[in-house]
Amino acid sequence: MRHPEDYVEAVLSLVEQVPPGRVTTYGAIAAALGRYGPRRVGAVMAEHGAAVPWWRVVRADGTVPPGLAARAREHHLAEGTPYRSSGAVDLRIARWPDLDPAPRGQ
Description:
Helix content is 44%, strand content 4%. It is mainly alpha-helical.
């Protein structure tokens, strides 16, 4: 699937704003950008997200895709991201709500 370049840049820009130890969700990014949905954000991250802190984007239940779980957990532990006993990120504590769809400095 081809994603518009400006949308890809907007998604990656938002991911770069999430501070260490905090997370956001695919749905929160989609809502902040006001177009497409969480699956499209996930597709952008799968195709273009390697250069940004991808582990700071989780599903609405605090989990990450199974193939990324072990690597994401390593990053989360290093950053002090809080987890629930279920093994998911504790979104009540770790959710970063300050999504701004405009790139910083503009």
